[in-house]
Design a protein that fits this description.
2 domains, single chain, alpha+beta, Heat Shock Protein 90, transmembrane, 5-stranded mixed β-sheet, 3-stranded antiparallel β-sheet, two-component regulatory system, HATPase_dom, DUF5931 domain-containing protein
Length: about 425
């Protein structure tokens, strides 16, 4: 069956680009307002008018450039910073000398900080330090001599830009770490799913061949020995830890991409939530027999197809353990309950029970019947699997799937934004 590959796109810096876009427009209007308010004090207003004409056109025309890291290229940053520095250096030419000496605003005013912040968001604190240093030098040249107000403004821009650049670098590193953790988790879950399938089929066949071959003797015994060796090797393979994850792909404009492999689809292109629910009882009925008693409610127990199959497979794994460890003559009972809070399936047998510590030992040996085929399945559905065993009094496995779990109908509605009642 084809698998669905879900691509998650993460970007913690994208809000910064949106904020920077708004900042550039607002500061452009602010600088223009300052000029119009003090128009009569300018010595050469024509110079200022020409500069502001360029500033307005440049700011509005380059809004897409500051919409994301991919569009904010180095040539754009260089020209943008050049316009800011030109405005600072043109201030003594256009404005009155007295206003410059008294610390009046430069032509671009605080619009200059937008250029520096673009460097910070694009390249981190080192790029921010470079841009803010050039702005500081231009401000000192424009004033002619360092004053307290000039130094205050220079240091403020320098520190703020470097701090923002550093935060962006930390956010990107955290984003990559989170993306890698999600891929590792996805790879681990896929390995566990494959391990369950292998345990339910291949490993059990190999174990049966080993037992029958040993019992028959002769050439069959050799075949059984080889099957046993392959069983041990396969168990070691499926319990050897998570498989290596692919290298994360990154798009500077949108952030890290995480590709998660999900459960196989029954039909290509069909949405999981659009499929009709399955009555869990119909999947458990085949397990009933001479030595297995099935007790079920009178009404259907609807579940999404994938969840219903997983619960039925967990019940099948529990019954396989009964046959294998309690003997073919042992009796088992399956009880299905559809409670208001969840669906509970209990599998109980009259076998000898499980010795204390045996489950931990079996898991260490790579035997995944309880750890993966039962508990792993319910855990992936958002439920739990509890096992109670008293030596000499049989074993009871309780599979509980809450109604709000992702694998249930209510959980599926919540995940799609439904308004179902609980």
């Amino acid at each position: 069956m084809p698998k669905r590959v879900k691509v998650m796109r993460m970007s913690v810096e994208q809000p910064l680009w949106r904020a920077l876009t708004a900042y550039r427009v607002l500061t452009m209007l602010y600088a223009l307002g300052l000029f119009l308010g003090a128009y009569g004090d300018f010595r050469r207003p024509g110079v200022a008018i020409g500069y502001f004409a360029v500033l307005v056109v440049w700011t509005l025309a380059t809004l897409p450039k500051v919409a994301g890291a991919a569009h904010c290229t180095k040539p754009f940053l260089a020209v943008d910073l050049g316009i800011a520095l030109t405005g600072i250096l043109l201030t003594p030419v256009a404005d009155a000398h007295q206003r410059v000496v008294e610390g009046g605003p430069t032509l671009p005013s605080i619009w200059t900080a937008g250029s520096v912040l673009a460097y910070a968001v694009k390249g981190g604190w080192r790029w921010a330090a470079f841009a803010s240093t050039l702005v500081a030098a231009a401000n000192l040249v424009e004033r002619g001599a360092p004053t307290r107000d000039t130094l205050h403004n220079v240091v403020l821009v320098w520190v703020a830009a470097i701090a923002i650049g550093y935060v962006v670098e930390v956010a990107r590193a955290s984003e990559r770490t989170l993306a890698r953790a999600l891929e590792i988790e996805a790879a681990t879950r896929e390995r566990e799913r494959l391990a369950r399938d292998i345990h339910d089929g291949v490993l059990q066949v190999l174990a049966m061949v080993q037992r029958r071959g040993t019992a028959l003797g002769g050439e069959a015994a050799e075949l059984g020995r080889m099957a046993g060796e392959q069983e041990v090797a396969l168990r070691s393979l499926v319990t050897g830890g998570p498989s290596p994850v692919s290298r994360l792909s990154e798009d500077e404009s949108e952030g890290a991409l995480v590709r998660l492999v999900q459960e196989p689809e029954e039909e290509s292109g069909e949405a999981a939530g659009a499929r009709e629910p399955v009555d869990l009882r119909s999947l458990l009925t085949p397990y009933a027999g001479a030595r297995v008693t099935l007790s079920e409610p009178g009404a259907p127990v609807p579940l999404p197809p994938a969840a219903a199959r997983e619960v039925a497979a967990a019940v099948g794994a529990a019954l396989d353990n009964v046959t294998r460890h309690a003997g073919e003559e042992a009796r088992a009972w399956i009880l299905v309950e559809d409670d208001p809070d969840g669906i509970v399936v209990t599998v109980r047998d009259d076998g000898p029970g499980i010795p204390e510590g045996r489950l931990v030992q079996a898991e260490g040996e790579g035997r995944l019947g309880v750890a993966q085929s039962i508990r792993g399945r319910l855990r992936d559905l958002g439920g739990t699997a509890e096992l109670l065993s008293v030596p000499g009094q049989g074993t009871e496995v309780e599979l509980r799937l809450p109604k709000e779990a992702p694998g249930t109908m209510a959980g599926a509605q919540d995940a799609r934004g439904g308004t179902g009642q609980r």
